[in-house]
Write a structure and sequence with these properties.
It contains 19 helices and 29 strands. It is of the alpha/beta class. The chain has 4 domains: 140 residues, Chitobiase, domain 2, CATH 3.30.379; 144 residues, no CATH class; 131 residues, no CATH class; 147 residues, no CATH class. The strands form 7 sheets. Strands 18, 19, 21, 22, 25, 28 and 29 form a 7-stranded antiparallel sheet that branches. Helix 12 crosses helix 13 and helix 16 crosses helix 18. Bound molecules: zinc ion. Zinc ion binds next to helix 9.
């Protein structure tokens, strides 16, 4: 009696293994073979039991240009590029689409939309626990809203091309999309941007043809080209046509499509030719009008020989403003507008981003083909990865792009090991590039649930509150932010967020993978804590009550424990881990408080260490110095500039009001070895710096420490001078060593 159910189960098990079959065309093309392989592999992980579609089981999938697809008029050459169809007919399911991507896209849409599988990055994916799956009859189709969807990859690895196919990016910046991934929509040589210098490198042409180059401060120099020069235009066209011909020939043999776009655009700097002709043209048409006139002339000629080729140019820096005087881009010109001005933490529809929205909405009147170059990452020393909740605004952004006639998007979102909430933002970007009208809040919900499991409510609450605070306090995070841009996250917010993360970590404490993800979500906040509360400084005295609730040493410990391991998952693992470890080492003082110097031991003061000093243009070098009580010093080579000669100056500069608030000079050093130099008294403004030496290259910013602002302090700097510049009996090179700066509360 007891054996019967077991036998029945075993019998049923062998039957359900046959609940689907996968068929392709007789001789599948490489991308069809890839689609079949992916469907096979993922269904094997996803289905345990029975797959039923529209009441039928077993079902047969027909992937690519199959006989069944032909009968239903769903062959790749009769459909538009990137269009995809999922269609069930009785117990058969067609997965196919247009061009070289359609079959792949249909397959991936089936896996994502119906099987619940997601791809978060090159190293992480989500496959629901294997089970039976019952689906209604299938009849879905689509085509990406933007014809060009590309994302910059800084460290390319073997999985990048595969990931791009899975998430339906069709560009190939930094990644080679081979035939099995259907190739890519791509820019031809020499490069996808800033090609002026590729076509006319200064080292080859400046001497023989100075007139091709921009006139800057009265001299023809490397910078940009002089695009009003007629001879240059002729030569540029010649090179461009040769280039197109050569690259088309190179592709012919491979059977893959030739590049569709060739870039002709300014170099990556803000110089503008100041010759009379260029200046006059700018006056009439705006800088962008002048550049478009040049690009149009080339494009019209290219069209005669290559009617399907587009010429792409950048609306970047001074060219971001649309042209005047009725200038329009030719029909085969693509204008790629760069977003270098917006507050990334806010929606494009908020008043603070009106400048960019206006530029965007004007451009659509001047260019039939409008692409965008945008960012969801911020740059600048140690700024990448500090928290800002841009995810809540991507829906607005991508919809606005689509409504304003944008047809292609290039996205800069590199540094997955470091950028803030990379996986969440990446997921949204790729989904919305394909369809900006998806419910973005629902996408965030999906991500949170699948990615963080039981910790999802806490992580989501952190992100919601981050956005609320930014809005309340007018936080502004531009692409190169300064550290005080993150002041909207004040001490109370840090306390609140830390509490949420404690709950989040505890909710997933038994799941290593989820726990590591929560730790990584916390990374930006922990870095903010270390940078603000202990990055190169400490406080000696009756610390503020709130400061005591923010455990800097714990933030430092979390970063050390979790961040390098996270970085090691990505291509270039050792380099990335090293980069991260070096950054953490900057926070060393977060846990190591030096004893007060003897002379100040009964005073209250802020103590700044050399690893946090501003070292503009690497004027100094951070070195180990056993003669310093700090153990380290910023050493400036005093022979490098007259500014380091005596007298030695120090004081305080108000950056916001551009005013010197304190300045004390010394005709000679106090003594050999380290000594304290007073810089006078200062009432600390919102944004200012202690400066040391007359060059001002070495300084200490104070604006990020809120408890300092508005109060009066005495400035002290510890410095050591060596070499003949300072001492008649010394020889060799001269140096100034700075190992400590103090802001001491008045007695
Ligand atoms: Zn010029």
């Amino acid at each position: 009696m007891k054996l019967m159910p077991l036998l029945t189960l075993a019998f049923a098990g062998s039957l359900v293994a046959q609940s689907y079959f996968i068929k392709g065309p007789e001789s599948p093309k490489p991308y069809e073979a890839m689609a079949i392989k992916e469907l096979t592999d993922y269904l094997a992980k996803r289905i345990d039991g029975k797959l039923t579609v529209g009441g039928a089981s077993p079902v047969t999938f027909h992937v690519g240009d199959t006989e069944l697809a032909a009968r239903h008029l769903l062959l790749s050459d009769s459909l538009l590029d990137d269009e995809w169809h999922i269609k069930s007919i009785g117990d058969n399911v067609i997965l196919n689409g247009g061009g070289t991507h359609g079959a792949l896209y249909a397959t991936y849409h089936f896996l994502e939309d119906y099987c619940g599988i997601h791809w978060w990055s090159v190293v992480e994916e989500y496959v629901p626990a294997a089970s039976s799956l019952t689906l209604d009859a299938l009849d879905a189709s689509g085509r990406p809203a933007f014809i060009y969807r590309d994302m910059y990859v800084a460290q390319s690895g073997p999985n990048h091309a595969q990931l791009r196919a899975r998430i339906r990016l069709n560009g190939s910046d930094g990644v080679k999309m081979k035939a099995e991934f259907g190739g890519s929509f791509r820019y031809g040589p020499p490069s996808a941007s800033h090609t002026f210098e590729r076509y006319f490198p200064a080292k080859t042409y400046l001497e023989s043809h100075p007139e091709y180059f921009s006139l800057l401060d009265g001299k023809r120099r490397d910078g940009q080209l002089c695009v009003t020069n007629k001879e240059l235009r002729k030569e540029f066209l010649k090179k461009l046509l040769e280039n197109i011909e050569k690259s088309h020939k190179a592709v012919e043999a491979t059977g893959m499509p030739a590049p569709q776009i060739y870039d002709v655009s300014m170099n990556d700097n803000r110089s503008r030719c100041q010759c009379d002709e260029c200046k006059a043209a700018e006056e009439m048409y705006n800088p962008s009008g002048l550049y478009l006139d040049f690009v149009n002339e080339l494009a019209v000629e290219v069209k005669k020989k290559y009617p399907n080729v587009f010429i792409s140019t950048l609306a970047y820096y001074y060219n971001e403003q649309p042209p005047n005087g009725g200038v329009k881009a030719a029909d085969n010109v693509i204008v790629r507008l760069c977003d270098t001005q917006t507050n990334q933490a806010a929606s494009i529809l908020e008043p603070c981003n009106k400048v960019y929205l206006d530029i965007l909405s004007q451009w659509k009147k001047h260019a039939k083909n409008l692409f965008i170059w945008d960012y969801s990452i911020v740059y600048g020393k140690n700024m990448t990865g500090l928290p800002f909740a841009s995810e809540w605004h991507y829906g607005d952004l991508f919809r606005t792009y689509h409504e304003n006639n944008v047809s292609g998007i290039f996205w800069e979102h590199e540094e997955p090991h470091m950028a803030d909430m990379y996986e969440l933002k990446f997921f949204l970007e790729t989904k919305l590039m394909e369809n900006p009208y998806l419910d973005d809040k629902q996408l965030i919900e999906t991500f949170m649930t699948c990615y963080y499991g039981p910790a999802a409510p806490y992580v989501k609450q952190y992100r919601l509150r981050l956005n609320e605070l930014r809005k309340e306090r007018n936080g502004r995070v531009v692409w190169f932010p300064i550290f005080s841009a993150f002041n909207y996250i004040d001490d109370n917010a840090i306390v609140e967020f830390n509490a949420l993360f404690e709950k989040a970590e505890s909710a997933v404490k038994d799941d290593k993978t989820l726990w590591a993800r929560v730790r990584h979500a916390r990374c930006g906040l922990d870095r903010l804590i270390c940078m603000r509360k202990g990055y190169g400084w400490s406080y000696h005295g009756p610390a503020l009550a709130l400061d005591n609730k923010i455990d800097v040493a714990a933030a430092y410990r979390r970063l050390s424990e979790s961040w390098p391991a996270w970085a090691r998952q990505f291509p270039g693992e050792e380099t990335l881990a090293k980069q991260v470890t070096e950054m953490i080492s900057l926070f060393d003082n977060a846990q190591r408080k030096l004893p007060p110097p003897e002379v100040f031991k009964n005073r209250n003061f802020y103590d700044f260490y050399p690893n946090g000093f501003v070292n503009y243009r690497n004027a100094g070098k951070l070195i180990d110095d056993p003669t310093s009580p700090v153990g380290k010093a910023l050493r400036v080579n005093a022979d490098a500039s007259d500014y380091y000669k005596l007298p030695f100056a120090l004081g305080y500069y108000d950056n916001g009001n551009k005013k010197t608030l304190a300045n004390v000079s010394y005709q000679r050093p106090h003594k050999k070895g380290y000594a304290w130099y007073s810089g006078g008294k200062v009432r600390i403004p919102h944004d200012g710096s202690i400066f040391v030496t007359r060059s001002w290259y070495v300084s200490q910013k104070t604006g990020s420490i809120n408890s300092l602002i508005g109060k009066e302090y005495e400035i002290y700097v510890s410095a050591k001078f060596t070499g003949p510049l300072y001492w008649a009996d010394e020889q060799g090179e001269s140096y100034i060593y700075i190992d400590r700066m103090l802001l001491v509360e008045p007695e």
